[in-house]
Every structure is written in structure tokens, then in C-alpha cells.
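hey so i finally got around to running the thing on that chain from the lab meeting. sorry it took forever, my laptop kept dying and i had to restart like 3 times. anyway pasting the input first so we r on the same page abt which one it is
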Amino acid sequence: MASAHPPTPVLCGLGGWLPPRIVTNEELSRGLDTSDTWIRTRTGIGRRHVAEPGTATSDLAVEAARRALKSAGTDHADALILATTTPDRPCPATAPLIAAELGLGTVPALDVGAVCTGFLYALATGAGFLAAGLAGTVLVVGADTYSRILDPADRSTRALFGDGAGAVVLRAGTADEPGALGPLVLASDGTGADLIRVPSGGSRDPVRPGTAHLSDPYFRMEGKKVFRNAVERMAAASRQVAERRGWGVEGIDLLVAHQANVRILYAVADLLGLPRSRCHVHLDRVGNTAAASVPLALADAAAGGALRPGDRVVTCAFGGGLTWGAAALNWPGISPH
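ok and heres what got predicted. didnt touch it at all, straight out
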């Protein structure tokens, strides 16, 4: 007899990839009006990885995906979902290319665009594939090359972001298994769409007739307003999933939040009443890697011993749209690659 309950998504593989080139604050300050002290004080970031010319988002995604599949002990998935703000091209979607590069065959593959919350939206989409019986395993990837869309003269954004990719494998399972994911909470508020934006390049502001240029192709952000919204939204969503899971905030062993700014991370922990020691920090070495941030931080925490099997994890994110969300996860005994 078929179960009356849909299968629970279970995390069974994890991998990440960072391009080899490292750009330190000192290097950045040689061509920008900033300094290591200024960047560290305001963001907590010491360095970031940057993709070399000719390296696309799909290249990073393929490397992370291969490592996630290896971690899961397989070379196949029934579907692939990519979260990104920096696809290889405006059209077509990048996910089918990644699936082809991985040799997955003609599996369903699609892009999800929710900026820095994209990985959580992609997780929820993957959970839906499992619940609908469309797949037994789903490869979920978050990858971005923000270095391609940053204004070279804008220190407020150029110092923040790095390139990278992270991936997980989800399989259909039960709620009492190690690695069980959920509940998930997702939300949006389009009235704040202009707080995080790339003004040109879409149908609202396309290439001008008679020119080959966009009026403003760079990433823009209203930092102070984003800070306040990010703290409040991520804290509220994290509290919601912890309570719905039956843990309560006090039962969270580790908070793995989107790695945007160390002051945001600590402010979220403070608002929740969690010790800052339970908030994992990875951005000091990689910066804000956008959609890759959450899986890369999970991989870093697991590899460094901050996560142990059975730990109660809450992960949360905030990004353009505005979008935000959180998810609860019982940490499995897996080794990230």
C-alpha cells in the first residue's frame, strides 16, 4: 500500500568548489579606495576566490556537482536544479548544460533565480520533485560568478563578493532518517526589489537601439536597508523552522546562515538568543558567494569538525527579490568533497 505521506528529502551528498585564484584585501586595495582594515572591520572578509577569464558559472557548478555525487557514492541523479544569478547566458538556462557535462542524460534540469536565497528555493524545488515522484534523487547546485557583474570602482560591493559553487544530493527518504530535511520556509517581498538589483540587461532596460551597451550592467545594493531586512527576516525564518521541527531556538546546535557579512551573522544569532559560537563563519576566507554560500558553508563546517552526525542544523538566507528562507536539517554522517 502506498504511503499516505510524501517522502522526506534526505541529504546524502555534499560538495563544493572554489576557483584557485585568491584575491586578498591587500590586492584589492591596490586598485580601489579601500584597505584591509576597512574591509575586515565592516564585513569580516579577508579574501575571496575569483574565477579566471573564460571560466563560467557552469564550470564551477560542474566541479561542485561531481564532488557532491562522489560524496553520495553515485554518479547519477534523476534531476538537476541550479540556483544562480549569473547564468552562462541570458538564454538558455544553464542547468541543462551542467547535466550534459555530468553525463546525466536527458534528466529534467532547470535554473532557479532567487539571488542569495536561491539555494534554499532550489532545495524546496528538489523536495517537490521527490514528493511528486518525478525523481528519486535530485542534484541541487548553487553557483555564482559575481566577479562578472561587479562595478570595478564600487568598493561597497567589490569587496564583498567571491565566486564559487556548492552542491548537495537529495534522495527520497523518511523523516526519522539522518539527513532528513525540513521544514522549509520561503518568502518574498517585491516592494523591496530595488534594494538588490542589476538595473540593465532584462526586458525593463535592454540594450539600447543603435548601441551594443547597457546603461548600467553592474550589481547594485542599498547596504543599510539590506542589512536591517536581512537580520530580521533570517532570524524570523530560522525561529519558525526550529519551532516547527520541535527543537525550539535553544535546540539549534549550529546556525549556518548565508555568508553575507559577519555583522549580519552575529546580529541574527543575537536576535535569536543563540551564542555566537553556534553561528558558523566561513566568509572570512571566501566572501559572499551568493547562491553557493549555504552549501559551501555547510561543507566547510562538516570538513572542519563543526558539524557532527545528529547535530540539529538551521540554515537561512536572504537575497534580492526580496527573498528569504530557512530550513531545518538533522545532520547526516557524510563527508563533503
